[in-house]
Inverse folding.
């Protein structure tokens, strides 16, 4: 048995909350608030006659309310009550092993004695079991089950409650990678990015004079025509210029990042990343061919890699 398992198994059976009396006896105002909050319209909780005709001695507290009688308010907890020595030891052993997160998993109540206004009850909480280390969707941890026993002033068991929590080590999930910056799409460039998503590198062409242009735009710089269509680029070109970007590092990119001005064999130039080559191997005028970066489901961009000899 490992150190932590031994330390935990020593705690099983111990009182994690010693007998604690409710601050107030069972009372009608709290019952009224409870049934209103729960929208529970059963009359036996507030109406003595209805309760008597159902076989009780008078109005009874909702059994599920048992936990409420002995709970302390948030302020009392926040004021620094760290719990019993057993609780401190239990949570310390778990925290030292990295099980610092907690989630309640289930609660199982059983009722034995009816509670009526005026009854005063107490609760004792014992560690019933601590599971071996388990792997869960939230992370690896131990299920800690405690048994709360509620008793009235006569010592009769009113109810029991099994209370199970998972103390776990949060799984370290790598943060999802930032997406590449989105292009600012508009009516003059959306077609180009839409074609890229289909792995087509298109070049805008003036239908009046045939001049190709890039970046895309509404008007021909040569003849001022607003009419245009596109042609598919062959994908061949050469490095007109380039930079190797080291800083600032943006999470969406791998560095060093080659940013090149590529001149296509059709004559237009575009800016693109280069792939399949080390930054110190890039040369101006080197022949390149088209490749694609499918950055994410919404963004595909052309990239260029060195042309193999047969691709020149
Ligand atoms: Zn033109």
């Amino acid at each position: 048995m490992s150190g932590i398992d031994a330390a935990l198994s020593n705690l099983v059976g111990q009182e994690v909350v010693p007998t604690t009396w409710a601050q107030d006896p069972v009372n009608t105002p709290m019952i009224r608030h409870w049934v209103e909050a729960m929208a529970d319209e059963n009359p036996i909780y507030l109406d003595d006659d209805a309760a008597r005709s159902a076989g009780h001695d008078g109005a009874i507290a909702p059994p599920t309310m048992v936990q409420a009688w002995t709970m302390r308010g948030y302020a009392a907890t926040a004021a620094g009550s760290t719990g019993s020595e057993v609780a401190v030891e239990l949570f310390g052993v778990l925290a030292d092993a990295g099980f610092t997160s907690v989630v309640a998993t289930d609660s199982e109540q059983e009722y034995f004695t009816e509670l009526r206004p005026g009854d005063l009850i107490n609760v004792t909480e014992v560690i019933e079991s601590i599971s071996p280390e388990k792997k869960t969707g939230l992370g690896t941890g131990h299920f800690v089950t405690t048994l709360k026993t509620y008793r009235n002033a006569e010592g009769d068991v009113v109810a029991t409650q099994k209370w199970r929590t998972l103390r776990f080590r949060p799984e370290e999930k790598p943060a999802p990678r930032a997406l590449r910056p989105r292009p600012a799409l508009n009516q003059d460039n959306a077609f180009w990015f839409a074609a890229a998503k289909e792995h087509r590198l298109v070049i805008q062409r003036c239908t009046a004079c045939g001049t190709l242009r890039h970046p895309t735009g509404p008007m021909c710089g040569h003849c001022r025509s607003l009419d245009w269509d596109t042609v598919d680029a062959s994908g061949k070109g050469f490095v007109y210029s380039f930079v190797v970007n080291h800083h600032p590092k943006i999470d969406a990119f791998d560095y060093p990042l080659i940013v090149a001005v590529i001149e296509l064999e059709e004559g237009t130039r575009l800016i693109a990343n280069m792939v399949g080559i080390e930054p110190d191997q890039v040369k101006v005028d080197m022949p390149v061919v088209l490749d694609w970066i499918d950055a994410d489901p919404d963004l595909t961009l052309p990239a260029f890699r060195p042309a193999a000899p047969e691709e020149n």
The chain has two domains: 3-26+61-170, 190-311. The chain has a mean pLDDT of 92. Residues 206, 208-209, 211, 220, 222-223, 225 surround zinc ion (CB under 6 Å). Helices lie at 3-11, 28-38, 48-53, 66-70, 74-78, 85-96, 190-197.
